[in-house]
Amino acid sequence: LEQQLRQAQKMEAIGQLTGGIAHDFNNLLTVIIGYTEMLSAAPNLDEARRHQIQTIDQAASRASDLTRRLLAFGRRQPLEPRKVEMNRLAANMEAMLQRTLGESIEIECVLAGGLWPCFADPAQIEAAILNLAVNARDAMPNGGKLTIETANTRLSEDYAVANADVEPGQYVMLAVTDTGTGMTPEVQARAFEPFFTTKEVGKGTGLGLSMIYGFVKQSGGHIKIYSEIGHGTVVKMYLPRALSEAEQAAAVPQSDTAAQP
Ligand code: ADP
């Protein structure tokens, strides 16, 4: 399972890298192809020159074809956000997490009653929880406790001011807490960076948290780490509350349903 997780992280990163490079490279090729076309249209070209320009044009076109294929390979799987009952999703994962983390780690789920549904891709939420749990286990080599907690949360204007990129509003919070080594402020500051890892080669890719960050941001959510050396770490993930059908209807104003005072 871990092997699969690491493999998925690597493929995702390779996809992003190749996608980015292919995109930029294709723009450069467009310039080359554009100018060779202009050159070949010039009057009084001798046969040798025309052949040279044609050769440049053919090579550039082949390269362009290659980058198109790379782009197709690197294209990210689109997110499939849906209304998700986070409690049910977390509860369904508990047995699998216990098997993955081993007996030395106790798992507790503290699931809030009356939890709002959230709106996000359930497969990505599961991947995020698994990533966070594996990180927690790595931080507890001598065993410990992993707590998964959910809560309805209102992120206030004040909180949004104190934390970049947060929209104040209603969120479903999922917190993953461990009693592990904790992070130094330096590690905490860099934890979301792609490829940042403190783990030995082959154990960490440094992509887990950066992927979670990307997913949460794309979902209109927010993520925050609280950590204390020697005590442990809490990662809090906030996903937007899914609107009820009535609220959804209200959010899309219709011409025949004028708002009542
Ligand atoms: P990886 O786990 O492959 O190193 P991540 O992006 O998931 O990549 O994590 C980056 C770094 O953040 C880790 O190498 C580790 O130093 C730190 N980290 C992440 N989660 C925890 C945790 N629960 N406790 C302590 N440190 C953590």
From TrEMBL:
Residue stretches spanning the membrane: none
Residues annotated as domain Histidine kinase: 20-243
Signal peptide start and end residues: none
Highest taxon of source: Bacteria
Protein name per the record: histidine kinase
Boundaries of the shown chain within the full protein: 331 to 591 of 715
